[in-house]
Amino acid sequence: MKAPNRLWGLMAEYDNPADVLAAARSAYAAGYRQLDAYSPMPIHGLAEAIGFRRTRLPLLVLTGGLVGCFAAFFMLWYVETHVYPLNVGGRPLNSWPSFIPITFEVTILFAAITAVLGMLALNGLPTPYHPVFNVRRFALASRHRFFLSIEASDPLFDLEATRRFLEATHAREVSEVER
Amino acid sequence: MRGDGNTLDQYGSYGRQRRTGGERLWRSFEELEQAPEFRLLAENEFAPGALEREGGPSRRRVLELLGASLALAGAAGCTRQPPEKIVPYVAAPEEVTPGKPLYYATAFLLGKVASGILVESHLGRPTKIEGNPDHPASLGATSPLAQAFVLGLYDPDRSKVVIRHGRISSWVNFLAAAAAERERLLARRGAGFRVLTEPVTSPSLAAALRALLAELPEARWHQYQPLTGDHARQGSRLAFGEPLHVLYRLEQADVIVSLDADLFGAGPAAVRYARDFASRRRPDHPAGMNRLYVVEPAPSVTGAMADHRLALSNRQVELAARALAAGLGLPVSPQADAPAKEWIAAVAADLDRSRGRSLVVAGEHQPPAVHALALAINHQLGNLGRTVFCTPPLEAEPVDQMASLKELVADLAAGRVQTLLILGGNPVYQAPADLGFGEALQRAELRIHLSLYEDETSQLCHWHLPEAHPLEAWSDARAFDGTVTLLQPLIEPLYAGRSALEVVSIFAGRPSQTGEEILREYWRGAAGAADFERWWRSALHDGLVRGSEFPPKPVSLRPDLFARLPEPPAAAPLELSIRPDPAVWDGRFANLAWLQELPKPITKLTWDNAVLLSPATARRLELAGGDLVELSAGGRSVRAPVWILPGHADECVTVHLGYGRTRAGKVATGIGFDAYRLQSSDRPWCTSVQLRRTGERYQLASTQHHHAMEGRRLVREATLAEFRRDPGFAHHGEHPPPADLSLYPPVAYEGYSWGMTIDLNTCLGCGACVIACQAENNIPVVGKDQVARGRAMHWIRIDRYFEGDPSRPAIYHQPVPCMHCDHAPCEVVCPTAATVHSAEGLNQMVYNRCVGTRYCANNCPYKVRRFNFYLYADWSVETLKMLRNPDVTVRSRGVMEKCTYCVQRINRARIAAEREERPIRDGEVVTACQAACPVQAITFGNLNDPAARVAELKKDPRNYGILEELNTRPRTTYLARLRNPNPALERL
Amino acid sequence: MEPERPQDPVATDEEAPVIAPGHTYQTVTDQISAIVLTRKTPREWLLGFTLSFALVMLLLYSIGYLLVAGTGIWGINHPVGWGFAIINFVWWIGIGHAGTLISAILLLLRQEWRTSINRFAEAMTLFAVACAALFPLLHMGRPWLFYWLLPYPNTMGTWPQPRSPLVWDVFAVTTYATVSAMFWFVGMIPDLATLRDRSRRRAAQIIYGILAMGWRGSAKHWHRYETAYLLLAGLATPLVVSVHTVVSFDFSIGIIPGWHATIFPPYFVAGAIYAGFAMVLTLAIPLRALYGLEDFITARHIDNMAKILLATGLIVVYGYLMEAFMAWYSGNEYEWFMIRNRISGPYKACYWALLACNGLAPQLLWFSRVRRNTRLLWLIAIVVGVGMWLERFIIVVTSLHRDFMPSAWGMYYPTAYDWTTYIGTIGLFLALLFLFIRFLPMISIFEMRTIVPPAERRARG
After folding, report:
1. From CA B741, how far away is CA B749, in angstroms rounded?
2. Do the strands B896-897 and B866-867 form a parallel or antiparallel pair, or are they unpaired?
3. Residues of A with CB below 8 A from C446's CB?
4. What is the percentage of chain A residues whose pLDDT exceeds 90?
5. Would you say residue B236 has pLDDT above 90?
6. What is the rounded CA–CA span in Å between residue C202 and residue B422?
7. For a tag on chain A, would you pick the N or C end, based on fewer CB atoms within 10 A?
8. Residue B58 confidence class, pLDDT cut points 50, 70, 90
9. Helices C299-330 & C115-138 angle (0-180, nearest 10)
10. Do residues C273 and C97 touch, judged by C-beta distance below 8 A?
11. In the prediction, which pLDDT does B25 show?
12. pTM to 2 decimal places
């Protein structure tokens, strides 16, 4: 038996999506909040099951896009009318129709970059170290097994009770996760 | 070994100079070899004359040397004002200021006949040739050949050193040898001593030679050059009993008939004649528009201008001349097989209608009979003294040159010649092959050759002497009308060359005498001026001796002319006509790459000569353009490529001289074929020839591959009558977009707004503008291979179109520079803003900014943009650096370039104007092409100035822009061409 | 390499499944990851890679000489200022588009058959864009100054001229390359985690570990991940359309007859997808045979791609017809001459070959038996690839060589260096592709798991 402070939490292993989904639901119902579920592919409803509602990502991306749009057009307009006021083919300095394609491309670029960086940031990736990897069988989480973890920091967490609770949810195996 | 010597002096010594550093240009091998004489000179680091002869340096000298040293800094080692006092055209040397060129008057020599030029000189470096407005042969314009004159000065292949038996020698050695030879000659009273010169129009040289001959009475003087002019002289002897020189006043003539005379394209008077002719092409001329008839074998610049042109073989031209004479009531029996009888009759009638206001010209290459007939006709029409004038010959000693050469060859063969002094010319290459001059030459015991290049003749001589280029030496010459023109040096000889005058004086026992001394001495006597210094100064300043032209000579037709008129030759199965090349002339300009790459006016060929023949003849002989054939005449043959030329006479082929050089320099050696091999001394210009297909092909580099206008109205033309009826004809069927057809508001161009018009009615297509532009704007030469790949760099392209029946097509020329469109398609697509519009409407190229996407060139509907696919500009040859116009960037690889409207000239004028706080005057900015144009077809100026000539012309009903339907709004526009046909022939 | 079985086992039934029956999470995982981790490299791979690497060397030589000597080594001249470089640029960019289309547009359209080919198609996009991007740089007279086309403050007084389609190109292509790369990488993160967990070798574990960025398949992560992926797809879709539109502007903004046509944008985009799917087929058919992936890339995939090929092919042909029709209908003499010159001018052979490749060949795809015959389909795909190259040749060369001024008309003949550069980029493309299939999962494993048939979901591992 290790010292509790070395303990990060408990992890249960399941062999199909239905079980882990059910387990997650019941754990949440039981009042556990420091929950997380792990699967080799996205499972619909799983995030909701552990009480994760919605992400701010779309809003971020919209902002990124708008910033790119205005930045691009302003750059073009300002440079062409103030920095390099050149007569090109007899066109006015602010020949805005010609500026549209670039504005559009930059909008897309900024939005896309925000989407990726935003996703990684919100997910806290990259994460060089995470306790769950201390469980040897967790490697299967990227193959065909499904896991549910309850962290020790959860107020309801009690090593024995929680273990029993998890074993009751068709878990193939419940293991302690070290910090 | 000779070859080595030559290559060494081209490359080896560059390397050597680089290693030693400092002044890279060596003046001669004496320098390199530290010959005693050179060490002597080296004491005062600038050769004799760096300091004034009479003691200390004057202010002028110091300024000159300052200028020179500035130039020296530019790695252009030996550049400096020549030591003697020469007189600038517009300003005195006190005003030598960097960046401000000076202009000096001197002359360009073609066949030793002068036409006046002004030479633009930057800090003592002559860089550009302009015409001399005061000179009768120039009136401010030049020919393309004259434009390339300055390149000849800097040609790195010029002979740089005295050569003896193929080994590098020195003037010192030659002076010693010459002195010894002189002693021997004096003892023999000159027996066995012969001098061979090109015809001498220079009074001073003639005097010097006469003096020498007086000293050596047994010696003989021969004259020869390929374009002898013998036939003209013989013709006038037939007609008037004496060899006379004939002048024409084209501006006085309403009807002009050319019997194979290339009045505007060839010869020392071409520029003047073209100007006079053009002055009567303008429909609004009070005396009315003139009419030109041309009969000729191969289409020439003159033929392309004709209102009626008839392609006839040489023999037929003679028959036509007879028929014409007969038609005008002269007692000549017209041959039964005379061509185009109605045509001739109509011409005769037209001539008859305009007695005293017409003229008939015989081509230099036509037999004496034709010349005689032309003179007789002019006499009959009362044109003599009105439009046609006879003067004494230009040559100081007019001789039948072919006879003179034959005599020399005979004497050589007979071993009667011990010492032969050849002053200029290249007879070994240029003499008709049947004379075998080369073999005969080697019978002489001592052979001395003075020439610009170490050429075929030098190779067979004991001594080769480097000649001073006319821009390096003092001399004088007569213009086409006899006007004496003084030639002053613009620069110290680059390679220690000496002039013919100086070499003669060596043999006269005065080796140290300079050209200037000889010339001054001669004219002090000849001028007969009270104040000689004043006379000398003004003669130099003006570039001519006023009032020195020959007075017309009264003549009377010999009554027995028609009895003595030789019969025309029998018809040949296939006739060969030999002509000088429009670009390299008789071969003397062969090493000038500008001229090699100049698209020849009618064929648009570059870098080659070809066998020109008509489409019909080509069909009969089953020949295609580029087929290699073997031509044989007089038992000699050459292999030559075929070029099919619409408008060429049938059953007749034309070849051009000047190619097939075996020893001419890096540029010319080994290109083209040598037409002299086909030439016979009896009938130099027209013989019978056999043509055999070889089945091989040969790559010819032409700058234009499509010769029809495809019904696109690029060149617009009407007859004078149509124009009178409907002045706006040029605008019919054209859909110019309305001025407001644009997404954007128009840009206003306040202040100056530059524009150009080009008058297609007078444009000859001669190419003077092309070379002028090349010289002014440092345009590189790209070579035959690149031209063949379609990468020629000329900023102004003279398009040539044929229209109508290929046997007698209409020939159009259209110079196409940048149009400087207000809605420039090139600018919009440039990704780096490397081409943009200036506030004055110029479409500018910013070379620094260009990354070379070539998008602009693709999007230019006029295709006037040129790209440096390789590093075309020559960055290594030192002399060529001296040639460059310092006001124009030398472009590098991967950069786009094009016509700038000579923006550097605009800015020069602007600076001058601003210093005087006045606007730029109309006509103050003259573009290089405009300045060179013999017929003033190009007009440039400020469109915002209603009084400007260009603004007036833009209002002319004939004014139109090409491809205006694209809404590019070009600033360069054209004046439609007019023809003045003979109604009688129109009906035919 | 060529497919060993023209008839697939499941190919007989009309609606073939997108994954062969009998597969479970682990079989999918193991079979695909094995290609990278455990299975020994096939001889064909070594052979193919060696060959394409040799071509890369050829490319490097051609580029080196180009930089030393200048663009003059190519066949370009006046009036044909653009030659192979621009032709190849447009061709490669076009090929890239299929990848984005498959991964983005089909995702939005919920076409689950895309899952097994999207990863591989995206990689193709990336590499095609890499090849494409080379040419605009190399075709410049002074390639070392390419950065003058980028907007950055400097003291040289240079700034891009944003009215020029070439500058639009710079933005469009860089954006496209960046987005495609991100899309591709993001899509790979979970699979990289799989490789990390399944690889036995330390080095592999570390490398894949770093690339996976500590992905642990948390439900919250999956949630955000899917959102981001969907957003990217949503952004890539208009992007892919805009990119080839901008490329078509390079021509249609010009005034040259044969370039200046409003039909260009749609007709270029269709052409791009056309060429792209042709390339996907050209690569997918041999690969699935070589690695025995018939279970994942089933007859259904092949069939659908063939259908898309047919559809886009018809659009392209419509483009050709409209081009000719408008030239005649406009009554513009230059446009009309341009078409006549294509049909009967010096380059008529190319034009007719183009019509044969792009117009006739795909008509065979009306027949399902042709669509199922992978050998024949492969040939057709190759033919279409050639045809699309010819299309660009016709647009660039025949439009330029005879435009407005007959006096300036000329011809264009490619030189040896034009060819070596082009073939070199094909080598580069293949070399990158070979490396990709060797070191990364060429089929998206996690997406395959989502389509494992429900029957198998309870299967015990």
Report:
1. 18
2. antiparallel
3. 40-42
4. 50
5. yes
6. 92
7. N
8. low
9. 40
10. yes
11. 38
12. 0.88
CB B200 within 8 A of CB B397: yes
Amino acid at B114: A
* C chain contacts of residue B854, beta-carbon cutoff 8 Å: 76, 81-82, 139, 141
- Any idea which residue has 């006709």 for tokens? B377
Residue appearing with tokens 């071969």: B587
Question: Of A55 and B416, which is predicted with more confidence?
Answer: B416
pLDDT band at B959 (very low <50, low <70, confident <90, very high): very high
B390 touches B552 (CB < 8 A): yes
| Mean pLDDT value across chain C | 88
CA triple B246-B252-B256, angle to 5 deg: 70
Q: What share of chain C in percent tops pLDDT 90? A: 67
Higher pLDDT, C98 or B670: B670
Which residues, including other chains, have CB under 8 Å from residue B113's CB and lie 6 or more apart?
B137, B201, B268, B394, B477, B478, B479, B480
The SS3 call for residue B736 is coil
Closest CB to B747 among A84, A90, A97: A90
Q: Say how far residue B212 (Cα) sits from the centre of its chain.
A: 33
Pairwise CB contact (< 8 Å): A101 & C232: no
pLDDT tens-digit readout, B335-392: 778 888 899 999 999 999 999 999 999 999 999 999 999 999 999 999 999 999 999 9
Check CB contact of A56 with chain C, cutoff 8 Å: no
Q: How confident is the model at residue B985 (pLDDT cuts 50, 70, 90)?
A: confident
User: Identity (one letter) of the amino acid at A119?
Assistant: M
pLDDT of B154 reads: 93
**Structure tokens that stand for B538 in this block:** 């003004």
Mean pLDDT, rounded, for A7-26: 90
CA–CA min distance B784, chain C (Å): 14
C-beta separation of C81 from B858 below 8 A: yes
Q: Are the Cβ atoms of A112 and C163 closer than 8 angstroms?
A: no
Q: How many CB atoms lie within 10 A of CB B179?
A: 13
Average pLDDT over residues C411-430: 95
Angle at alpha carbon of residue B26, lines to B23 and B32, rounded to 5°: 110
Closest-CA residue to B868 (of B849, B850, B881, B886):
B850
Mean pLDDT of B678-695: 92
Task: Check whether B146 has a pLDDT greater than 70.
Answer: yes
Query: Do the beta carbons of residue B626 and residue B613 sit within 8 Å?
Result: no
Do strands B358-362 and B255-259 pair parallel, antiparallel, or not at all (unpaired)?
Answer: parallel
The per-residue pLDDT for B84 is 60
Long-range Cβ contacts of C370-373 (<8 Å, 24+ apart)? C370/C306, C371/C302, C371/C303, C371/C306, C371/C307, C372/C6, C372/C7, C372/C8, C372/C11, C372/C299, C372/C302, C372/C303, C373/C6
C-beta separation of B482 from B550 below 8 A = yes
The Cα B629–Cα B690 span in angstroms is: 10
Of the candidates B789, B830, B861, which has its C-beta nearest C77's C-beta?
Answer: B789
Q: C345: number of CA atoms within 13 Å, CB side?
A: 22
CB-based contact (8 Å) between C81 and chain B?
yes
Cα(B905)–Cα(B863) distance, integer angstroms:
24
Q: Do A102 and C213 touch (CB under 8 A)?
A: no
**What order do you get walking across the sheet with B690-697 strand by strand?**
B686-688, B575-579, B652-656, B611-613, B636-644, B627-633, B690-697
From C82, C141, C149, residue closest to B894, measured CB to CB:
C141
Query: How far is it, in rounded angstroms, from Cα B629 to Cα B649?
Result: 19
What confidence tens digit (pLDDT) does each residue in B30-50 have? 444 444 444 444 443 333 333
Chain A segment 77-96 residues within 8 A of C by beta carbon are 79-80, 83-84, 86, 88-89, 91, 95
- Average pLDDT taken over every residue of chain B: 87
| pLDDT reading at B862 higher than 50 | yes
